[in-house]
Amino acid sequence: MRNSKTIAGAGLALSLFCGAALADTLKFTVDLEPEQAGKPGKGTATFTVDTASKTLTGTIEYSGVATPQMAAFLSPPEKQGGNPGTLPIQLPANAASPISVKMQMPPAAIDGLKGGEWVLLLGTKQAPEIGGDVKPAQ
């Protein structure tokens, strides 16, 4: 009887471990502030990353940002070698707040987000107006 309980317990632990290892859902938040002191603009963003499908979904809310030719980017820190590069976020033609986001993420970008090293930048195509660190949600 004791052996069967041990085997059942080990089987349950193994199935829980394997299920958690196969897929993970990660949640992130961003507080957006002006890139230059004294400039207008603020916002927040929430993102969820499904590591199995390598898909990021979320919402960006903002105010005080010029909307013609708006652009948004997820950007890694500047490091030599292994940098997956800046990822543009597809925005609708009239990107009114809130903006819904859905995009594929390369594995290196997911690893970077997990490490808390990426930033979200939002503004015109010429220059970001607001930005903030992408941090794990509490």
Which class best fits the helix and strand makeup?
Answer: alpha+beta
Q: What oligomeric arrangement do these chains adopt?
A: single chain
CA-to-CA gap between the ends? 43 Å
Q: What composes the largest sheet?
A: 9 strands, antiparallel
List the uncertain runs: 8-20
Give the percentage of residues in beta strands. Answer: 35-45%
Shape: globular
3D architecture notes:
- It is globular and about 40 Å long.
- Helices cover 21% and strands 41% of the residues.
- The chain is α+β, with helices and mostly antiparallel strands and 138 residues long.
- Strands 1, 2, 3, 4, 5, 6, 7, 8 and 9 form a nine-stranded antiparallel β-sheet that branches.
- The chain has two helices and nine strands; from the N terminus they run αββββββαβββ.
- The protein has one domain.
- The chain has helices spanning 2-22, 107-114, and strands spanning 25-34, 42-50, 55-63, 70-75, 87-89, 99-104, 119-124, 128-133, 135-136.
List the topology elements:
Blueprint (H helix, E strand, L loop, with lengths): L1 H21 L2 E10 L7 E9 L4 E9 L6 E6 L11 E3 L9 E6 L2 H8 L4 E6 L3 E6 L1 E2 L2
Antiparallel strand pairs: 1-2, 1-8, 1-9, 2-3, 3-6, 4-5, 4-7, 7-8
Task: Write a brief structural summary.
The protein is 21% helix and 41% strand. It has 138 residues and is α+β, with helices and mostly antiparallel strands. Strands 1, 2, 3, 4, 5, 6, 7, 8 and 9 form a nine-stranded antiparallel sheet that branches.
